[in-house]
Amino acid sequence: MARELRGNLQGNGLRVAIVVARFNQFVTQKLLEGARDALSSHGVDDDGVTVAWVPGSFELPLTAKTLAGTGSYDAVVCLGAVIRGETTHYDMVAGQAASGISRAALDTEVPVIFGVLTCENMEQAIDRAGGKSGNLGHNAAVGAIEMARLLQAIRGPGQAIKEP
After folding, report:
1. Is the CB of residue 2 less than 8 Å from the CB of residue 36?
2. pLDDT digit string (tens) for 39-88?
């Protein structure tokens, strides 16, 4: 019979860092609230959560990689909101944030979760930060728990984090 590995949603004992962009803070604060609520409701102790604020979504990857590289966290959640404007700035920031967050996870072998809204307008962002479309921050935090537990299952007991 094939062996099947799954992460669970038991957050007890996990250490999670959340990196939040200040740009569009009206939205990112709501994402942070959703993420903290999800972590708490899944058993992650508030003492096991670290929140780091960065200027904008472009700065999320470096901070996430640095936090993940310390060996102190089971997962890192990145929260931001990039809203399309009249220039190509949106495309560059959204693309670099996504690429950098992915690279941070691959380089450190710690789950680094993409919780960055990429929206056409503020209404869409508000809808995805606790409005009618749910809260991406909440979803990202749940994903962080599941991925942390999955990697623990793959690595075996006592091997939750790759040491730097």
Report:
1. no
2. 999 999 999 999 999 999 999 999 999 999 999 999 999 999 999 976 67
Any idea what the Cα angle at residue 9 is, between residues 50 and 35, rounded to 5°?
40
Residue spans of the domains in the chain: they are 42-119+131-155
DSSP track, 34-68: HHHHHHHHTT--GGGEEEEEESSGGGHHHHHHHHH
What pLDDT digit, counting tens, does each position of 69-83 carry?
999 999 999 999 999
139-160 pLDDT, tens digit per residue, is 999 999 999 999 999 998 655 4
33 burial level (CB within 10 Å; 0-12, 13-18, 19+)? middle
**Span 42-119+131-155: which CATH code?**
3.40.50.960
The residue with tokens 């450190």 is 108
Query: Structure pTM?
Result: 0.92
138 carries an active-site annotation: no
| Number of neighbours of residue 50 by Cβ within 10 angstroms | 15
Residue type for 81, please? A
* The one catalytic residue among 10, 89, 107, 159: 89
